[in-house]
C-alpha cells in the first residue's frame, strides 16, 4: 500500500495532453472529444525500468480525478485502463462514457 512518502507525484501536462510523472518518463495520454466534455484515455506508458511500482494505476487515478472534478466522461481506449484499471477499481466506472450518460447529462 502506498504511503504519502512513496506516492509518486503525478503532474498534468495540459500542452501535451497527458498526466505524467515528474521525470516525464511515465504517462497517460488523452484526447478531448465531444466539444471538450469527454476525455479519451488513449495510451498509458511506463518504462520497463519503472515497472511494478504501480505507476500506471497512479496515472489513471490522476486522470479520473481530473475528469471527475471537471464533469468529464472517460472513454477507456487504452487497454490498460479498460482491462486492468477499471476491473480493479470499479468505483471509477461511473465516469465511463456511454450514450446513456450523454443523454443523462444533457437532460440535467
UniProtKB/TrEMBL annotation:
InterPro entries: Acyl_CoA_acyltransferase (IPR016181), Gcn5-rel_NAT (IPR045057), GNAT_YJDJ (IPR031165). PROSITE patterns: GNAT_YJDJ. It comes from the Eukaryota. Residues 9-97 form the N-acetyltransferase domain. Pfam families: Acetyltransf_CG. This is N-acetyltransferase domain-containing protein. It comes from Eruca vesicaria subsp. sativa (Garden rocket). The lineage of its organism: Eukaryota, Viridiplantae, Streptophyta, Embryophyta, Tracheophyta.
Amino acid at each position: 500500500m502506498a504511503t504519502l512518502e512513496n506516492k509518486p507525484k503525478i503532474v498534468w501536462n495540459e500542452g501535451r495532453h497527458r498526466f505524467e510523472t515528474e521525470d516525464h518518463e511515465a504517462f497517460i495520454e488523452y484526447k478531448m472529444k465531444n466539444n471538450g466534455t469527454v476525455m479519451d484515455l488513449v495510451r498509458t506508458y511506463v518504462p520497463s525500468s519503472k515497472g511494478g511500482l504501480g505507476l500506471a494505476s497512479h496515472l489513471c487515478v490522476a486522470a479520473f480525478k481530473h475528469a471527475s472534478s471537471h464533469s468529464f466522461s472517460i472513454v477507456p481506449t487504452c487497454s490498460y485502463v479498460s482491462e486492468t484499471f477499471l476491473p480493479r477499481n470499479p468505483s471509477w466506472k461511473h465516469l465511463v462514457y456511454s450514450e446513456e450518460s450523454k443523454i443523462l447529462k444533457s437532460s440535467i
